[in-house]
Design goal:
The chain has about 260 residues and is mainly α. It has eight helices and no strands.
């Protein structure tokens, strides 16, 4: 029980830090200085207005001074971070894998939200993520360095292949190279099977949401979705339940054979 309380509080504080990264990295700002301030009136945010989730509710989602709206992603990230840590904990307890996976989940959250708002996937997150995943593979038992490298190349390579087909068919660049770099990171941490699973899941979700926007919201078929925002939850799902889904799928397949 103490462990769970610790993870919740740590996750809430860590989520606040992730919000700082999400806001500052696309603007090229330092992540340490200056202290947080309102982007509209530039007044510094007092510590009692910076309590995860609670402050957002008390301030009704507005700056205390100028009443500018605080993006909903702030409480969402502060909620999703401890939630994802608890889900990882429920499967792996407080192991080395737990801490590594919390880092991985944090990178996914930051990338997913930044891609949603800015349609970019910053190298500041993906490149250290790839390096950490490869270094971590030297210590973990479930994925060797070779498997991590194969995972990275298979994940990124298959996405590049899809982009190539898309380019040939529509003579138009579909998506940015940031998604490919993000797949390098996902593959290096999850291995090639789960990297494929992540791609399939993200593509299905992207196609469903894209169809919804085109048919229900009458957006143009050229309407581009931020693919990293789909890769992010898909990779997290693969991290937690990918092996189970794959095992269930394989046993189903075996049972269907005569
Ligand atoms: Zn303000």
């Amino acid at each position: 029980m103490e462990e769970i309380i610790f993870i919740v509080f740590f996750g809430l504080a860590w989520g606040s830090f992730l919000n700082v990264l999400i806001y500052r990295i696309p603007l090229g700002m330092s992540i340490i200085k200056p202290p947080s301030s309102c982007p509209d009136c530039e007044k510094n945010i007092k510590y009692h207005d910076n309590i995860p989730i609670i402050s957002f509710v008390l301030l009704k989602g507005k700056c205390r001074y100028c009443k500018a709206k605080i993006p909903f992603s702030y409480p969402l990230v502060e909620f999703l971070t401890p939630l994802s840590f608890l889900l990882i904990y429920s499967l792996h307890s407080l192991s080395f894998f737990f801490f590594a996976s919390c880092f991985f989940a944090s990178a996914l959250i930051v990338l997913g939200v930044i891609d949603f708002y800015h349609q970019i996937i910053p190298d500041e997150i993906t490149l250290p993520g790839i390096a950490l995943a490869l270094i971590y593979s030297l210590f973990r038992k479930d994925l060797s360095l070779n498997q991590a490298l194969v995972g990275a190349l298979a994940g990124a390579g298959s996405l590049l292949f899809i982009y190539g087909l898309y380019y040939l068919l529509r003579k138009k660049e579909g998506l940015g190279m940031g998604d490919v770099t993000m797949m390098l990171m996902i593959g290096a941490y999850l291995g090639w099977q789960q990297a494929f699973f992540t791609l399939i899941l993200a593509s299905l979700a992207g196609a469903l949401v894209g169809a919804f926007f085109i048919f229900c919201k009458k957006k143009s078929p050229q309407y581009a979705l931020p693919f990293g925002t789909f890769l992010s939850p898909a990779a997290f799902f693969a991290l937690l339940w990918g092996e189970k889904v794959l095992a269930a799928y394989l046993s189903l397949y075996k049972n269907l054979l005569p």
